[in-house]
Amino acid sequence: SSVQSGQNRNAILVSHRQKGNPLLKYIRNVRWVFADVVCDYLLGPNSCALYLSVRYHLLHPDYLYFRIRELQKNFKLRVILCHVDVEDVVKPLQEVTRTAMLHDCTLLCAWSLEECGRYLETIKVYENKPADILQGQTDTDYLSRLSHALTTVRHVNKTDVVTLGSTFGSLSNIMDASMEDLARCPGIGERKVKRLYDTFHEPFKHDV
Amino acid sequence: MVQFHEHIISDLLEEEPNSKNNGGLVILSSGLALHKLISSLLTLHSSSQGTLLILNSNPSQRSSIIQSLELQNFSNLPLEITSELSQNHRHSLYTSSSAFFITSRILIVDLLNSKVPTSLIAGIIILNAHNLTETCTESFIVRIFRGLNKVAYVRAFSDKPNGMVSGFGKTQRIMKCLFMRKLHLWPRFQVYVSQDLEKDPPVVIDVRVGMSGYMKGIQKAVIEAMDACLKELKKSNKVDVDDLTVENSLFKSFDEIVRRQLDPIWHVLGKKTKQLVMDLKTLRKLLDYLVRYDAVTYLKYLDTLRVSEGVRSIWIFADSSHKIFEFAKKRVYRLVQANGEKLTVPNKSVGNKKKKAKEDNSNEKEETNTTSGVVIEEVLEEAPKWKVLREILEEIEEERQKQAMPQEGKDITDYADDDNGIVLVACKDERSCMQLEDFVTKGARQVMRDEWEKYLRDKTGLHGLQARQGKKPRNPKGVGILDGKVPVMSRENVGASSVSKLEHDALLAAASCIKNLSKDETVAIGDDPQPQGGSKGRGKGKGKGKSKESQGNTKVSPSKEISTRITRKRKSTMSNVDNESGRSESNTVDSEVSREETEKSGTVNKGALRIHEEEVNAAEFAHVKPLPIVHFFALDSDQHILDILKPTRIIVYHPDMTFVREVEVYKAENPLMKLKIYFLFYEDSTEVQKFEASIRRENSAFESLIRQKSLMMFPLDQDGHCVGPTTSIEPQGLTSQNSLTRKAGGRKEAEKVMQVIVDMREFMSSLPNVLHQKGLQIIPVTLDVGDYVLSPLICVERKSISDLFQSFASGRLYTQVETMVRYYRMPVLLIEFSQDKSFSFQSASDIGDDVTPTSIISKLSLLVMHFPRLRLVWSRNLYATAEIFASLKSNQDEPDLEKAMRVGVPSEEGIIADDVRAETYNTSAVEFLRRLPGVTDSNYRALIDGCKSLAELALLPIDKLAELMGGQKAARTLRDFLDAKFPTMP
Question: How many CB atoms are closer than 10 A to CB B917?
């Protein structure tokens, strides 16, 4: 029925294979339903996920490869959600990484079932979300922006930003300040003075 | 040279030449003149031996080594080899058989490109051995170098023994990776050292200065707060409590102790525990600044803290921290009703007040009227050490005069040799130097007033107006309290709770008063450039007396010598004696700043107030006794000026163990000099505690090193050479790797060597070293896209965990991935964890109930959704990364160097020759620029090309910006941000 499929569009479709996976308990922010799907979790029209516990992988090293092969090329985003549930992880993780790479899959690691569940939820919830939160500038107020810029200079902290701002009044005044004026600021020691001054006064590039 | 230096050198040289164990690690106590030791080694270097390379030196070490060579008239001074020299030039230097300072990054790149004629290298000296690790670039260098040259020596030095014992078996591990067997320990308590230094010890006078009541109160409150934080931290049961003492927490290394324990479990710690660690750091600074800063600056720092940390900090809400703020404020001002009555403020301690009044009766009380009916009464407590400093200086001068009298008949030059009358005041930082200098010239009250005026201006955002007047047409947003108009405050909440509001108003009023005065002042100075000119003729200072502005210039320009500041102060009667005594100031005369005694710069009082001020000044100076020449020296500058200035009186204003040792060495080198040292300690202060603890800590570090030395074992190969790090240091991967490691260390051509192209900047990290250990060939170049190119298809952007969070926040990761995806078929984001930290982002309990945009999970999810072709690689540590790289490369072609270098470089000019890529960037400036509003990936290159530096950018007019940035809108955004007025502090 169309009503049902409409509802299912907003839900994660879970393969019957995942029945009994305690991870399902942690998918709470979106709806999920069992369905006949070839992947473990169908997250959208073009994205899907396979769940892999490292412990399981150690017992069945070929499992992942066969599951990926089943997927064929139907999805743009093919996530392998790797639950890191053993201590000695380097070697198995290397194998998983290699398999994922060679077969065009994106590997996401999670260290708890909660985290696994959260990845699935997030990918579903953010299905149509633009990437702007990745493009920097989450805070747009003046002080955050000023800190954002000034803290590129090593060891300059938020307190120093306030000190510099209140002492010099504006960013252009800070950038134009003499070494001595910088040194007079409380909390700004010799090395910070030098770093700040060099950042502002050394040329952007030295031609060789 | 002191004798024990000769011992150290002969110990080192003993093994040579051509011995099998050519090299060693020397650890000596701090302050034992390591720079002189190195310069002695350099004078012993002869060009017949070959080229000598000095690695891992910092700028101050380089300058002090060169300085001590110059003092010995040694002509062949070592040059610096940096990336700014061309490759051919570098090559000619490598073959020149002299000594050089070189940056490790350049040396490793040249070694990997086979551009270093290793057989012509006589040896390598590595400084700051305490900074080395098993995988650092220096150990990479030594490993490659040892593979090619087995006879040259490699010597490492450290004068930070504490740094050599942090971490398990650190010294032995470092020695192993440098292929060294010999450890030379030279603590201060070593027989030769102590004999040398204690033969003719200087006269030491220990002056204990009492702190003011408020200072004691603040110290007590800070310690209480620290104690509370420590107790909380212990409660968390996450740290070993033995090391958590208030004494330990006075040191920077305390953070290290705590972090080392907490790092592996950092992700499971609650926010509170993390904040406690931060708070302890802040509190430590507060203790330190209490004895370093004047009362006003201290208050300003506290205000700043409240703004920047207020919300997060735990300590700020503690009971004791209330006292910190309260006392700090009372040292500066108090609130009084306009009619003279005191405003009742809780916690007022009458006892303290009385005591204070007794201590400095010179406190000026000025009342400033405000509309609100409450006025600020200045207290402006002076630092108790100031008075004592003046007394000591007077005493020294008196003594000198007495001595000079009977010697009048004797040969005057004789006397000058012995005592040039120079007094050195050593304090912690440049700031204290400047302030003490002001104090000596202007008097305590003037210094305090200047600070107070600055405070008021900063506090109320009234600064910089004179500077930018006329230049700034636009009215900045958000601030309407300009021009001294007290804002129309709503009268509705003048209740008891609004004391702070009243206070703020009163401060504003005081500030506006000052601002208006200073405007007038500017005019006054314009009319009469030397307002004090004829008032008091004093000595020859008058002749040179310059107006305030020109002095400002002299002081700003010498950025290098900024820490050696010289002030002269004397009466006319003294000047003859001074001239005749032929003081040895020829080498410092350039930077000398001479002043008139009563010069009074930047006074902001007018009319009646000014007269009042003059009177007070006159009164103050009436009883002033002559003072000697005083040099101020900042310990933080890491320079060594004792040998240049040759002072005979040293006042240690801020006690410091390293400096004390330097003085001891200086005395030992000049046994005939009559050297007198004054120590100024605040009694019962953490200053004393810290000084004593630093000596104890160093001693125990040496004891531990001596124990370790007796147990050290080093494997040897058949030729008797030390065998460096073996595969056993690699925690993983014992299996398939043997076949790959056989080529490690050598660059012999095997049938097929796996190659990796590595961006130059990555040589700051250890991964290239580990990849090389694994048998991969490293090709260093400058890459525009990605950090590592594994094959024509695979390009890797590597992020450590902190990098990952940072570059997500800045938006940089997004653009990096975007370009990688554009140019490579298999773009890879490598997320590399650190072995000593946990392998996970967060604990399950930190994940929270909702999907939040700030979570790392959300960001990673969005990233992979927007770039489905991006491959993520999760690596436990460096070694695991190397394994993964090798495994990913196994069925791929080798990368194409030419192509990799061309990727992403704008090619409109069509020239992508090798030298175009040889530019080096001021990376922090470029990064800074890219974070400014209006600056984007598409316009930042034009800005870099169009103006020289950020300082220049700050002054560019908007039209020019628009031209460079290709649009008015972006230019306007940038210009607005640059000129935006910093909001005033609440």
Answer: 16
Average pLDDT over residues B803-821: 87
- Please state the rounded mean pLDDT for residues B363-388: 70
- Which residues are registered as beta bridge partners of B153? B123
Read off the amino acid at residue B116.
V
pLDDT digits (tens, 9 = 90+) for B24-46: 899 999 999 999 999 999 998 88
User: Does the beta-carbon distance from A205 to B922 stay under 8 Å?
Assistant: yes
pTM of the predicted protein model: 0.76
* A167 touching B (Cβ < 8 Å): yes
Please give the Cα distance from B50 to B100 (Å, whole number): 11
- B3-198 maps to CATH 3.40.50.300: yes
Do B948 and A204 lie within an 8 Å CB cutoff?
yes
Please indicate whether residue B72 or residue B552 has the higher confidence score (pLDDT): B72
pLDDT at B531 over 50: no
Contact B219, B384 (CB under 8 A): no
Cα first-last separation, chain B? 57
pLDDT in tens, B184-195: 999 999 999 999
Domains B200-209+384-403+420-465+626-684 and B919-979 share a fold: no
Q: CA A98, A101, A105 angle in degrees (round to 5)?
A: 125
List the single residue in A77, A91, A180 with the smallest CB-CB distance to B555.
A180
Contact between B453 and B604 (Cβ < 8 Å): yes
pLDDT value at B590 more than 60: no
The tokens for B338 are 């306009």
Q: Which of B98-107, B531-540, B643-652 has the lowest mean pLDDT?
A: B531-540
Cβ distance of A106 and B868 shorter than 8 Å: yes
Question: How big is chain B, counted in residues?
Answer: 986
- What amino acid is encoded at B651 in this protein? I
Query: Given an 8 Å threshold on Cβ–Cβ distance, is B468 in contact with A173?
Result: yes
Q: Which residue from A89, A91, A207 is facing B839, i.e. has the nearest CB?
A: A89
pLDDT in tens, B401-447: 887 766 554 444 444 445 677 899 999 988 899 999 999 888 888 99
Q: Where are the domains of chain B?
A: 3-198, 200-209+384-403+420-465+626-684, 213-343+373-378, 755-838+855-906, 919-979
Which DSSP string do the residues of B331-382 spell out, in sequence order? TTEEEEETTSPBP--TT--HHHHHHHHHH-TT----B---TTSEEEEE--PP
CATH of B200-209+384-403+420-465+626-684, one of 3.30.565.10, 3.40.50.10300, 3.40.50.300, 3.90.740.10: 3.40.50.300
Q: Which has the higher per-residue pLDDT, B578 or B276?
A: B276
Whether B665 and B197 have beta carbons less than 8 Å apart is answered as yes
Q: Collect all residues with Cβ–Cβ distance below 8 Å to B440 and sequence separation of at least 6.
A: B389, B390, B393, B567, B569, B627, B630
Residue of chain B whose Cα is closest to the Cα of A78: B868
The CATH number given to B919-979 is 1.10.150.20
- Closest partner CB to B308 (pick from A162, A191, A199): A162
> Helices marked H in B178-294 — which ranges?
191-198, 213-235, 253-262, 271-292
Residues pairing with B184 in the sheet: B26
Q: Cα dihedral sign for B335, B336, B338, B344?
A: positive
Least confident of B104-113, B518-527, B861-870: B518-527
How does strand B920-921 pair with strand A205-206? antiparallel
pLDDT of B741 higher than 60: no
**Nearest chain A residue to B944, by CA:** A204
Would you state the pLDDT for residue A113?
A: 94
CATH domain B755-838+855-906 topology: Rossmann fold (3.40.50)
The span from the CA of B385 to the CA of B433, in Å, is: 14
Q: Which of residues 121-160 of A touch B (CB under 8 A)?
A: 121-123, 125-127, 129, 131, 133-138, 142-143, 145-146, 148-150, 152-154, 157-159
